[in-house]
Amino acid sequence: xxxxxxxxxxxxxxxxxxxxxxxxxxxxxSLGKGPAVIVLHGGPGNDFNYLVDAIRPQTQHHTFIxxxxxxxxxxxxxxxxxxxxxxxxxxxxxxxxxxxxxxxKVVLLAHSWGTYLAMLYYQAHPEHxxxxxxxxxxxxxxxxxxxxxxxxxxxxxxQRALRQRPAVTLAEKAAGVDRAxxxxxxxxxxxxxxxxxxxxxxLYHIERWEQFQGAGVYYSEQIDSVIADSLPTTxxxxxxxxxxxxxxxxxQGDTDYIDPSAHAWDYLRGxxxxxxxxxxxxxxxxxxxxxxxxxTDFRQALDRSF
Length: 306
Known about the structure:
Elements lengths: L5 H7 L2 E4 L6 E8 L3 E5 L11 H4 L7 E5 L11 H4 L4 H15 L4 E6 L1 H12 L4 E7 L12 H16 L2 H10 L10 H17 L18 H9 L8 H6 L4 E6 L20 E6 L6 H4 L1 H13 L3
Parallel strand pairs: 3-4, 3-5, 5-6, 6-7, 7-8
Antiparallel strand pairs: 1-2, 2-4
């Protein structure tokens, strides 16, 4: 019998969780051994697979529970139900997963949009959270006097700046896709899109663009839009952290377009439950930009969560 690889193990461990309203089945799987950590992927409308490489080095010590959030690729919903999806629905799906796993309290590992979902869950069910590990985190509050949309406006400006770096042009030239689109093959056009639109904002080291995963069929713009429209206008995590304190670890790249160097967390730095790690020369996918430092910080985050 051949040895199982990571893909085989993920496939072997798959099971499906019917949602409480019977409108979807959540695709759930796991990797590793030891105390459980529930993983929340980005998006909304993304899938979990791009995070597997980030957690793989820690699978000797923990079991990581992966699932596609409702409406994502492997947990689809009917077209008629897509427009009614809300962030609150995803929060309750997560709580149903927790109950089904038999966990009274859970450690949540989240990336990008998943960090906001983790914080929403913590607000709704603080008694069932033992720790949060937030990678490439969204801000823990909306700016005073500003809405969520207004707070996030600078994000788009930083994304544009990252896409316009000279390094992006050099990466396209090195990949042989720096010609007019009509002179490129379909594969070359995809490579160019992957470099310009996907890897450029997410990686500081754009020359590692081939390691970027996701997009295409793995991402639903419609689900992203619908969930975004359901988010609260204003938000502040601090009252929940004060009332029900748990260890929160933030791992952020210093050029992450959402919140470079985790400055949005500065107002909570006096809270002893909060620990922030800033990774130099790293953007939104810091485990690709700086794998060794990311794993060192990730290990510390796990240690303080259990």
